Amino acid sequence: MAQGGNSVIVDPEAVHDAYERVRSDGDEIEWIALTYDDKSIVVKGTGCNYEDLLVLFTEDERLYAYYRFKTGDDMSVRAKFAFITWIGPKVTPLRKAKVSTDKAFVKQIFKEFSIEILADDMDDLVYEKVLEKVVLSSGAKY
Questions:
Q1: If you placed Cys at 27, which of 21, 34, 58, 111 could pair as Cys (CB 3.0 to 4.6 Å)?
Q2: 110: CB partners within 8 A, 6+ apart
């Protein structure tokens, strides 16, 4: 088990394996989400579409997500990645503060991403808005 602050990522190898699946061009998995189980950080789920990820972002949840976007055009499709930290609006101040220290540890596994988003409102996670930020972060808009 790996420690981040007082929280523990229960199975860092499983988290890393799921992260690599999201990054792989040959795998259909597009996202991984991590959440808290008491003081432990655990895998909440993995999946194949953005809508399934969005249902995990609830008002009382703290969540770390890593999502694979496809960008480019028909001639050149590229994968770009977003690291999302969600702190629901009903999360207590003490639990919100814990996210700031634990996120650094999660970033040791979710290392490569085009953009990082800190969100507490579902409007921040509208697919088109996030995709636009990802595309703009690449420095070229086709």
A1: 21
A2: 19, 64, 66, 83
What's the CA gap between 101 and 4, in Å, rounded?
7
Side by side, which strands form the sheet with 2-4? 2-4, 7-9, 40-47, 31-37, 62-73, 76-87, 115-119
The three-point CA angle 58-2-119 to 5° equals 25
Q: Are strands 40-47 and 7-9 parallel, antiparallel or unpaired?
A: parallel
What is the pTM for the complete model shown?
A: 0.90
Residue 36: partners with Cβ closer than 8 Å, 6 or more residues away: 7, 42, 62, 95
